[in-house]
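S2.1 Query sequence (MFS transporter)
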Amino acid sequence: MSSTVDTSALTVLKTPQTARVLAASLLGRIPLGAAPLALLVFARETMTLTLAGLLVGAYTAGMAVGQPMLARLADRWRQPPVLWLAVGGSTAGFALVAASLSTPLTIGAAVLAGLGAPPFEACLRVLWRDLLPERQIHTAYTLDTATQELIFVVGPVLTLGAVAAWGPAGGLAAAALCQAAGTAWFATAPVVRRWRGVPAVRHWAGPLRSGPLRVILGALVLIGAGVGSVTVAATGYAEESGGRSWAGWLIAAQAVGALAGGLLYVRSGTARRYGTLPRAAAALALGYLPLLLTPEPPVMLALMAVSGLALPPLLTITFVGIDGVAPAGTAAEAFAWAATAFAVGSALGAATTGPLLDGTGSATAGFAIAPLTIGLAWAILALAAGRRPTAPAPAEYQTDAPAGHQTTDVPAGH
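Output structure tokens follow.
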């Protein structure tokens, strides 16, 4: 019977509640694309680029701590109470940043805004098994990977529009409102209210006890550092070019490229095996090299779009790899740790790029970070792939389920 299941994206989206939870999670995740630029624009009214980058780093570092903690709570309890508690804290953080308190308090408020960011990715991916037949789950997963690039298209544009309409704090308000609306829409869905975590033997380290997972997370830190550095570098480039508003369009152009890359990857049917991860990292690193030319803004828009093409395939392959190596019963937390690793890297990249731009006065120096750090990630992944045993993985790591789900010791329907 499974061979007759239609696995097209359109069929998946027509399944009851599937489009709703996907759209609601995307709306709630808009701050991922909006908040970094909103914080930069707001901070640049009174702060140096170094402090502005530190503010973005504080927000992403808060997310790095909060995502696995909140995902673990949701996995052991229920999703709606955790989501409501989280979004309340994050909204308070955004409000305190907009209050323009002292610099230490503003940085602390940015940490709070990130700490409370609801773990939509982890919460969404554990719902697919309740909603879809087995053969459609991978389609849902890749569809999520591709469409999440809309966050980084809509987010910067929304920030620029909100700032133009309501002033420097408008971007912060828009990010907080989208996050709250997405939480309300997602948390009230019947499948979300119904979902319960799977009982399992717990270990203090959770999925981090898996060595292969730790390698992937280490690579994600480096990849995140490269991606995070580009946001600050693009802001510095825009200021050098005489128009700070170019920053939002540059970041949006990169997201458009990533969206195109994701959709092409979904349609291509290219093998999504973990063994292709080093090649995906190499492609991403190479895509960032042309940015070192820092041409005129119209050409730079095209180069930014090219630099984004390889990111969704890399993330898709990464998440499939995580699903294969995470210990049974820890998939949701493993994906939260992936988000944390990426966020930590992004914070480090942003915090490093600001002082580099202030010290050198050259946007080219800022754009050099991405190919260097992602190239290092490629080296680590290639070395790890070369050392992998040829024998099958242990039974506890084998799964035919899509990313975010475990087939070992997981009852049907969870």
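Residues 211-240 form the longest helix (30 residues). Residues 91 and 176 are 6 Å apart (CA to CA).
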